[in-house]
Specification:
Number of strands: 14
Order of helices and strands: EHEEHEHEHEEEEEHEHEHEE
Helix content: 10-25%
Number of helices: 7
Length: 281
């Protein structure tokens, strides 16, 4: 068993949008609570981040998370709401991130991501030549690859999102329990289903993108695409009545608030994530 904590559950602009005065954002500001969403980022157990949000510091402070414990970051893609390069490079700055002499690996962190992530890190060191390169250990990954991060198994799937980049989704498992993390994607590609079918084990938790809300999907999914995905996973025997089904990465582009959307999806046995939600897998 392992834990997944949703540090942020909004899309690129947050909810309400940074400068937005649309009706949904105005209603969210008034309602507050779980209607307020920072940019998406998740914590697996206490040591693995999935993506690095531009809101990572306030997220960690709000939830009492000590980011110095992070030993691995797994990136889905390089959009700025998922790859906060400034924060990542601060790990390589010995003045910004100080570790005791006894610290394991002297503060080194494993970073898993596609080649675009690697190029971003390279550019970060070009711009900051005094930073300590051995503190960021980059591991290139692509769809179809499997790797370990802090004892957990990750299996990379292709995301249907940024057309000029090989964006990724992940199956995460510990040999007994498993999670499908499909955040920031349109309807899943057939290659993703091929990898899921080959994996072949039941998912305890499924987290799907739902930036579009009740609207038709595009480079993100809406409720119709989510239901179609869930129906297909059911047909494959990979989820059942005991699986936890979550919708994540919710955007103001949907035109409704998170609370309003949550009311709409209850009949399907689905739950909308919120900042700070923790689930056991």
């Amino acid at each position: 068993m392992f834990s997944l904590t949703f540090l942020g559950t909004g899309a690129a602009e947050g909810f309400p949008g940074v400068f937005c005065a649309c009706p949904a954002c105005e209603r969210a500001r008034i309602a507050g609570g779980r209607n307020l969403k920072t940019r998406s980022c998740s914590l697996v157990d206490e040591t693995i981040l999935i993506d690095l949000s531009p809101d990572i510091l306030p997220q960690a402070l709000a939830l009492g998370i000590n980011l110095s414990k992070i030993t691995s970051i797994v990136f889905t893609h390089t959009h700025a709401d998922h790859l906060n390069l400034y924060a990542l490079m601060s790990r390589a700055n010995k003045n910004a991130s100080i570790f005791p002499d006894t610290a394991s690996r002297k503060g080194a962190i494993d970073v898993f991501g596609n080649r675009a992530v690697g190029r971003a890190i390279e550019q970060g060191f070009i711009e900051n030549p005094a930073f300590c390169e051995e503190r960021i250990i980059y591991h290139p990954i692509k769809a179809g690859d499997s790797f370990k991060a802090d004892g957990l198994n990750f299996h990379a799937l292709p995301a249907n999102h940024k057309k000029d980049e090989n964006c990724l989704l992940f199956i995460i498992e510990d040999g007994a329990d498993s999670l499908l993390y499909a955040n920031d994607t349109g309807i899943l590609a057939e290659q993703s289903y091929d990898i899921i079918r080959e994996y072949g084990k039941r998912f305890d938790v499924v987290s799907l993108d739902c930036a579009r809300g009740l609207l038709p999907g595009d480079g993100h999914m809406g409720l119709a695409e989510d239901l179609a995905t869930i129906e297909r996973l059911h047909a494959m025997g990979l989820i059942d009545a005991s699986s936890t089904l979550l919708l994540n990465h919710f955007s103001h582009m949907s035109g409704i608030t998170p609370d309003e959307f949550s009311d709409q999806i209850k009949e399907y046995g689905l739950s909308l994530t919120y900042d700070g939600l923790q689930v056991k897998v």
